[in-house]
Write a structure and sequence with these properties.
CATH superfamily of the largest domain: Metal-dependent hydrolases
Number of domains: 2
Bound molecules: N-(iminomethyl)-L-glutamic acid, fe (iii) ion
Shape: globular
Number of strands: 17
CATH architecture of the largest domain: Alpha-Beta Barrel
Number of helices: 16
Distance between the termini: 7 Å
Radius of gyration: 21 Å
């Protein structure tokens, strides 16, 4: 069926990216006029945007308002439209509850200290290993629904809380089985998230490369690999070995780097040609420029330092000045339990002083460029996928200006039209 959306006050189409993969970086991020247009109606058919035209033209073409039933008419009067959000870094599936860590944080313990006491990732791993696939699926579907309501239409889902072969495969298989429920999923194997207690680094590394990786590849349930590359977790050498083997097997590389200290992770990401290196709050300028020249995106995850009570990555505004490639994501995980891209946008705008449309590019077109997605994901273009959000606000800037509330009035994913 044909769908037409008429009356929108403005549409942030973000179709003027000029970098690799049509990204929007550098000063272009600040050019609101290039990315937002008033008086634009949208015609959608079979999940794709067929045509943009002025509201008057579209209404005339479809005989609106008198048209009865041969078209699905959506009246977006007084609302702005933005692309569907792309959350390119989540730890979607795990069981358990780590609310008890808040008291530890308030008593002054750091993330590292909490983890060294056997809490943190290890505690989520035990709860997850005990969860059947049916339970994980139910948990996952509930989370997808929450993300979808807040405008996420594409979501990367990492494994990583299984630690043993069976549970890692269960996590990836369960995530794969959840396709087509209002969001598009991208699957990442994060076997190298932590070490099982008592294991030795070398043995664990061999297990990941010789047992988990081949099983993941054989089952075809992931397209990317990720490693928690951080002093105290996975070293540069181990990360490199796991990533090189994974690349040989056809996975692309996404990394957790330099989250707490500058451990050289972003430089390694540049050498490996990673699609994205995330967190990266403590990376050196040299590494940032190296990443830029290698076409490696930096995914900032301000929700995580926010829940730690740490400073947010103020380097983001320099990324705009320097033209470095960056994006934003939630990092949804048991320690940072937000699936709200609008909340992350609020952190970037209200705390890091990033203009709303620049932050919008960071959660749509730029995030999409790190994933293997269909044409148009992350922006609104003729012939592209029709994933979009109709907002409660008349300005597209409003997408991130309602902290604690949901700015999305209606979210459309191409599978639904
Ligand atoms: O990206 N830092 C590594 N992994 C997750 C957190 C894991 C956890 O605390 O459960 C992250 O923040
Ligand atoms: Fe993460």
């Amino acid at each position: 069926m044909d769908t037409v959306i008429v009356g929108a006050s403005e549409v942030a189409h973000l179709s003027n990216g000029d970098g690799p993969n049509n990204r929007i970086d550098g000063q272009l991020m600040l050019d609101r006029e290039a990315h937002v247009t008033a008086d634009l109606a949208i015609h959608i058919k079979d999940g794709k945007i067929i045509k943009f035209s002025s509201n008057d033209e579209m209404k005339q073409e479809w005989g609106i308002p008198s048209n009865s039933n041969e078209v699905n008419i959506i009246d977006a009067s007084g609302c702005a439209i933005v692309p569907g959000f792309v959350d390119a870094h989540t730890h979607l599936l795990w069981d358990g509850d780590r609310s008890n860590e808040m008291a530890m944080k308030l008593s002054g313990m750091s993330y590292r200290e909490i983890s060294e006491k056997g809490f943190g990732i290890a505690s989520t791993v035990s709860a997850t290993q005990n969860a059947a696939a049916s339970r994980l699926r139910k948990i996952g579907m509930d989370r997808i629904e929450r993300a979808r309501k807040m405008g996420t239409t594409t979501l990367e889902a990492k494994s990583g809380y299984g630690l043993d072969l069976d549970t890692e495969l269960r996590l990836l298989e369960t995530a794969s089985s959840m396709e087509g429920n209002g969001v598009t999923l991208h699957h990442t194997w994060l076997g190298a998230h932590a070490y099982p207690s008592g294991s030795n680094e070398n043995e664990w590394n061999r297990h990941l490369i010789d047992e988990q990786l081949p099983a993941v590849i054989e089952q075809g349930i992931a397209t990317s690999v990720d490693v928690f590359c951080e002093p105290g977790w996975f070293s540069i050498e181990t990360t490199e070995e796991i990533c090189l083997s994974s690349k040989k097997s056809g996975l692309d590389v996404r990394l957790h780097v330099d989250e707490f200290v500058d451990g050289g992770g972003l430089s390694l990401a540049a050498e490996l040609g990673a699609s994205t290196a995330d967190h990266a709050g403590y990376s050196s300028d040299d590494a940032r420029s190296k990443a830029h020249h290698s076409g490696v995106n930096t995914g900032f995850l301000p929700g995580t330092p926010y829940v730690h009570g740490d400073p947010l990555p103020s380097i983001v505004s320099r990324c705009i000045d320097e033209g470095w490639m960056w994006s934003l994501a939630t990092d949804f995980n048991p320690n940072c339990r937000t699936l709200s891209i609008p909340f992350v946008g609020s952190l970037a705008v209200h705390r890091l002083r990033i203009p709303p449309i620049a932050a919008l590019a960071a959660v749509t077109i730029n995030a999409a460029s790190t994933l293997n997605v269909k044409k148009g994901v992350g922006r609104l273009v003729e012939g592209g996928i029709a994933d979009l959000n109709i907002l409660h606000t008349s300005s597209a800037d409003g997408w991130c200006l309602m902290p604690g509330d949901n700015p999305v009035k209606m979210s459309i994913h191409h599978s639904s039209c």
